[in-house]
C-alpha cells in the first residue's frame, strides 16, 4: 500500500516527458499515407470522401472528392475571377459626378464582385496618365495648297518607335535599356489632333487606324507651323 503513491508519481512523470517533441523525436510525428505516384493513388480501393494521401512524385497532397472528380490536389489556390470581394457593395470605379449633370468618365452598371472585375475596372483609372503620349515628330509639306492629303500617323509612329525597317539604329540608348521600344497595334490606340494652325490646316479627320486626312489652305510665313497629335491607349 505504501508503494502506490510512488507508482502514480512515476506514471505522471512519464506523461510529462513524452508530452513534448524534442529535436530527435521525428519518429513520434504522425504523417500522411504515401503513394509513389498518381497512378497508385487512383488504384486505391473504395477511398472515403475527404481521404488524403501524399504523392511522392510531385510532392503534393491529394484529397478524394468523390467518384465524379476523384483525387484532386489539396490546394486553396484560386483564380482572380473566383476570389469574391469581402464587401460586394463597393464600386471601385464609381464616379461621384454621375447623375449631377456632368458626364462621368468611369462608371459600371453594378459594383464589382470579384478580384478580376476590380482589376479591369481600376486599370483605366490608375494608368490614365500612362495611356496618353505624343507620337514622334512628323514632317508635313505645306509649301503648296492641297485638298484631301493623307498621312498615316500610326505608320509614322511604328516606323520610328519599332525601328522599321530592320537594322535601323537609335541615335542613343541609355545603359541597360532594351534595343527595341515596345509599340501598340493600330487598333489599340485612339488618335487625336489637339491643335492645328487654322491658317494652314482645314478639314482634318482621322480613321480608327490612325490615317489622317487634311487640306493645306495656306503656307506658313516663317517656314514653320504647328499641328499637335496625341495617341491614347484604349
Strand order in the largest sheet? 1-2-3-4
Order of helices and strands: HEHEEEHEEHEEEE
Beta-strand fraction estimate: 15-25%
Radius of gyration, CA atoms, in whole angstroms: 35 Å
Total strands: the figure is 10
Classify the helix fraction into a percent range: 10-25%
| Largest sheet data | 4 strands, mixed
Low-confidence stretches: 6-18, 97-107
N-to-C terminal Cα separation, in Å? Answer: 92 Å
Number of domains: 3
Mean of pLDDT: 79
SS-derived structural category = alpha+beta
Number of helical stretches of at least 4 residues: 4
The rough form would be described as elongated
Question: How does this structure look, described?
Answer:
The protein has 234 residues and is of the alpha+beta class. The protein folds into three domains: 31-77, YefM-like fold (3-Layer(aba) Sandwich); 80-126, no CATH class; 132-233, no CATH class. Helix content is 18%, strand content 21%. The chain is built from four helices and ten strands, in the order αβαβββαββαββββ. It has helices spanning 4-18, 38-42, 115-126, 153-161, and strands spanning 34-35, 52-55, 60-64, 71-73, 132-133, 146-152, 189-196, 201-206, 211-216, 227-233. The strands form three sheets. Strands 1-2-3-4 form a four-stranded mixed β-sheet. Strands 5-10-7 form a three-stranded antiparallel β-sheet, with no helix packed on it. The protein starts with a helix and ends with a strand. Residues 6-18 and 97-107 have low confidence and may be disordered.
